[in-house]
Amino acid sequence: MREIDVGIITKEIERLCIEANYYLPQDVKKALEDAVEKEESPLGKEIIIDILSNEEIARKKLMPICQDTGLAVVFLELGQDVRVVGGDLYEAINEGVRRGYINGYLRKSCVDDPFMERKNTGDNTPAIIHTTIVKGDKIKITLAPKGGGSENMSALAMLKPSDGVEGIKKFVLETVDKAGSNPCPPIIVGIGIGGTIEMTTLIAKKALLRTIGEYNPNPVVAKFEKELLKEINKLGIGPQGFGGRITALAVHIETFPAHIASMPVAINIQCHAARHKETII
C-alpha cells in the first residue's frame, strides 16, 4: 500500500487555491475568445474583451481574477490503495486552504454561523470537501473556489416524472432568466438530473468541472445540452447582463438513477471565471 504524507496534500491544496484564483482555465479562455466573434452586441463584445483583459492582468501581475475568491470546494478522489500518514486528512486540506488564502492574499469569505452572528473565520476555512473512494494508489484533488454571486442563483426543483423534458427545460430557462446579471455572465450552467435531493445538487456542481466543448457521453443528453444552450442564449441577457447573444458559454448535464416517483433537477450556475484547478498525487 502506497503511503502519502499529509504535508504533501497541504502544500498542493495551498498551491491550487492560489492558482485557481489567479489563472483562468484554458478552456474557459478559449470559449470567451470564441464568444467575442459570436457576440452581436457591440457592448457585449466590449465586455467580453474586458473580461479577457482582466484575465491577462491577473495572470501577469499574480493577483485574483475576481475579488470574490469564493468558498474552497474540494473534490477528493482517494485511491483505495493509498494510506494517508502523518496526520488527519481533512485537517491537512483545511490547513492548505488556510495557507493558500493567507499567502495568496485571497479574500476570506467564510462566516462561522450561517444565520446569526456570521463572524468571519479569518482564513476561509472550513473547506467544503466531497470524497470519493476510487481504485488505485493515487489521490486526485480538484479545487473549485465558488463565489457567492453565482452560487446564490442556483436552484433545486423536485419535479414529477410526468413533467418530462419540457418541465426540465422550463425550470432551467426560468432559473437563468431570473438570475439575470447576478452570476456575472457569460455563465456555465451545471445541471444534475436524478438521484436524491443531495445527489442531484452534487452532480450539478460536478458538471461545472467538465471541459467546455466536452459533451455528455450519452448522445441524447448531449443533444439536450446543445438545445438548452441555444435557448438560454436567446434570452438576451448577454455579457454581464447588458444584453446580447452570449449569456452562457456551456450547459453541462450529469444524470443519476432516480426513484420511480421522483425527478429531482438541480441547477448550479458558474460565473465566467469558472475557477478550478486539479492535481494528482
Could you walk me through the main structural features you see in this protein, from its secondary elements to its overall organization?
The protein is of the alpha/beta class and about 280 residues long. Helix content is about 40%, strand content about 25%. The chain is built from 8 helices and 10 strands. A 4-stranded mixed beta sheet has the order 4-2-5-10. Strands 6-9-7-8 form a 4-stranded mixed beta sheet. Helix 1 packs parallel to helix 4 and helix 2 (about 25-40) packs antiparallel against helix 3 (about 40-60). The longest helix is centred in the first third of the chain and has 20 residues, at about 40-60. The protein starts with a strand and ends with a strand.
Describe the structure in brief.
This protein has 281 residues and is of the alpha/beta class. The chain is built from eight helices and ten strands. The strands form three sheets. It has a four-stranded mixed sheet. A four-stranded mixed sheet has the order 6-9-7-8.
Key descriptive features of the protein:
single chain, 4-stranded mixed β-sheet, alpha/beta, globular, 281 residues
Strand content: 15-25%
Quaternary form: single chain
Helix content: 25-40%
Q: How far apart are the first and last residues' alpha carbons, in Å?
A: 14 Å
Provide the fold topology.
Layout: E1 2-5, H1 6-22, H2 26-38, H3 42-61, E2 71-79, E3 82-85, H4 89-103, E4 128-134, E5 139-146, H5 148-151, E6 155-159, H6 164-179, E7 187-195, H7 197-207, H8 219-232, E8 248-258, E9 263-270, E10 277-280
Parallel strand pairs: 1-3, 2-4, 7-8
Antiparallel strand pairs: 2-5, 5-10, 6-9, 7-9
Helix pairs in contact: 1-4, 2-3
